Every structure is written in structure tokens, then in C-alpha cells.
Amino acid sequence: MFTALAERLGGVVQRLTGRGVLTEADVTEALREIRRYLLEADVSFELTRDFVERVRVQAVGALQIKTVSPGQQVVKLVADELARMLGGATRRLDFASVGPTVILLVGLQGSGKTTTAAKLARRLKLEQKAPGLVAADPYRPAAREQLEQLGAQIGVALLGKRETGNVIELVQEAVREAEHARCRTVIVDTAGRLQVDEPLMEELRALKEAVKPREVLLVADAMTGQDAVRIARGFTDGVGVTGVILTKLDGDARGGAALSIFGVTGAPIVYAGVGEGVEALEPFDPARMAGRILGQGDVVALVEKAATAIDREAAERLEKKARSKRGMDLQDFLVALKQMERMGPLKQVLGLLPGVPAKALQALPADDRRLKHVEAIVLSMTPAERADPKLLNGSRRLRIAKGAGRPVQEVNRLLEQFQQMRKLLQRM
């Protein structure tokens, strides 16, 4: 989402850090650019003005400190203020000490509440919070069936009877059912509308009063830009939102919603949806997100992805093979490729590395078909050919290319890259 903004701010950051001496005029010029870029990213005018003024006041004092590079100091101020704009401290969910914690998911129709309910349930299940799901949307056709299918996919039960027409009774019964089933968390997927209206708010207020949820999380579509901010304000005023889950943060919107939503509503972003799969939900960390926007990467998120996605035993076997005299073969290469695929789209993974320019990420293909092509080529080889690539003469390469449905040049290029990687690993 922040690719365009990150590319522009990254340019400003490079110019600031590349100078040994900074004058007040240099800072003013840089802040003028940052102001323009934030406004172009659809950040509200008031928030942008306040952001630039806070950085300006602090930067004037920072220029007087000679022990640290002035450029680095100003960049740190920009990063700190971006983190503050995004909410400051990381917000964690508040769980009840006794009984199940009820979490209401609210939002407009089409914002992704049902899918987000399953994503959140999966994450809480991994955190040993024993979640249960409740389909409290009697208006949308097949809403319950969709949530039931998603729940089965992640191994989380759907609570509450189908026959109950009254939403409040359905949720109350589901909470009682959760107590008997020893569920620690109840995630309620509420009904949405096409717009913020009083009947919707009245229904949500009545439900909130009846079940006393610990959290009321607004699910907002980041692709709607400042509309998401307006919607968040409407729900905050109407029902009292405790946090926000932004969906489609991996999309190509300009990022104004993420940067504005906390400042306008006071509701912190708790989670961000970064893909369509049930695993694509990340805790939102303002400081780390500010680092991503400024091109400083997010190594912590990268390590977390690796910890959850990579098979430790397989990784250890690969390391031993890489260290051995013979080195990795193409079968090991295929295993490593599978491990990498599990971490998510290549563009997302590379975006977490420090120093990877936003322009380079934009140049990458939107999908990961290249990895699939490589996998098809390796799978078209016999076990003997994978173990000893020296066997691959011209006729064998032609057969592999036909089997994978790829040109022979692509097979040759893959084998060259594999040999280079193997030599590099052996040297290391």
C-alpha cells in the first residue's frame, strides 16, 4: 500500500542522511516535500499540518546537537512522528480474566468482516485463546455458511443456533455455549450495511448493551481512502469503537486511511489484513510500520514470518547440506523454495528487508508465478537429475522444458543461478 509514499519519502531520507551538514533551509525544504507527499497519499490536511509543525519544532533543536549526524536526527524525528500519527504504542487486545472475552466485529457490508473474523480466530487459536465464532448477520444470504466453512478450514467451531431469528438472543446463547465449551474468546461477526445509518447503529448499540463485549473492533477497507476515516468516525461516534482492523493493506491504495484513522478517531489500528488467505493478518505496530514507510524495513516481522512458516527440521537439514562438501542439490533447492513460498508473496517478504528500495519492489511482478515456473522445472527432472545436475545435457534439458511447459532458456538460466548459489553457500 505504501509503495509510492515509501519511494518518495525514501528519496527525502537519502538526501537528508547523505549530507554532513544540514541547515534550517534544508529541513524546511525537506518538510515541504514530505507535506506534499502526505497530502498526495490522501492524509487529512489537519493531520499533515500538525505532523510537519511538530517535526519542524524538534528539528530546529536537533540541528544544534553536533555529536550525532543532523540528517540521522531529522530522519529519526520523522520516523517517531509517523509512528505517533499511526497510533504511537502497539495496541493489544484486552482479554477478560474470567469467562469468555466477547469481541464484536463491526463495519460496512463488503469491508471483509466475515473473512477477518476467521483470520482473527486463527491468530487467537495460535495464541491459545480458544476462540469460537458467531454468525450474527441474518440479512446477508449465506453469511452463516461462509463463516462455517472458514471456521472448518481453521478448526474453530461456530457457536449459536441457526433457528434463532433474534440477533441478541443468538449471541447471548452463543456466549453461554462458549462457557460450556470452555472457549476463552467469542468473535461475533455482526451485520453490515452499505452505508452508516441510524438503524444499523441502533442494532449494534442494543447488541453491545446486551452482551457487554470487551472489544468492539471496526473492520475498515483501507482501499477506500478517506472514506474509511469517515466510516471510522461514524462508528466511533455511534457505537464506541475500541480498535480498528484495516483490511487490504497489501493493496495499491495510497495509504491515507492508515495514516489518518488514529488521529481523526482516536481508535488505534490493532491488526492489518495483508492478503486473502486466513493466515494473512498481522498485529499492527506503528513504529515498525513507520520504518517500512521510510524504507528501513521490518526485520522483526520478517523473523516472525519465518518462525511461523518455516519447518525448523527441514531448515536444519538444508543448513547441514549447504555446509557439506557436496553442497545442496536441486531437491534441496525445491525444499527451500517451498519454505520460502510459505512465508507469503515475494514482494511482501522483500519489503520487510532494510534497504530494499520501493522502486525495486514495484518492478517485481504482482504474482509469484516465477516461483511456480521454477518449481515446475525442478519437478520435471528425475530424482537422479536433481541429485546430480551434471547429468543434464542438451536432450535432457529439452525434455525438462517440455515437461514444465517453459522455454529451454529458462531451464538453462535456472541451472546457472543454482550453480552460482551453491558456490556462494560453500564459500560462506
How is this structure best described in words?
58% of the residues lie in helices and 9% in strands. It is of the alpha/beta class and 428 residues long. The chain has three domains: 3-85, Up-down Bundle (Four Helix Bundle (Hemerythrin (Met), subunit A)), CATH 1.20.120; 101-294, 3-Layer(aba) Sandwich (Rossmann fold); 303-427, Orthogonal Bundle (434 Repressor (Amino-terminal Domain)), CATH 1.10.260. The chain is flat. The model has no long low-confidence stretch (mean pLDDT 79).
Domain module tally: 3
Average pLDDT over all residues: 79
CATH fold assignment of the largest domain: Rossmann fold
CATH architecture of the largest domain: 3-Layer(aba) Sandwich
Structural class: alpha/beta
Strand order, main sheet: write it out: 3-2-4-1-5-6-7-8
Shape: flat
SSE pattern: HHHHEHEHEHEHEHEHEEHHHHHHHHHH
Helix amount, in percent?
A: 55-70%
User: What ranges have pLDDT less than 50 throughout 5 or more consecutive residues?
Assistant: none
Q: Radius of gyration, Cα only, in angstroms?
A: 25 Å
Largest sheet, described in full?
Answer: 8 strands, mixed
At the first level of CATH, what is the class of the largest domain? Alpha Beta
Chain oligomer state = single chain
Number of helices: 20
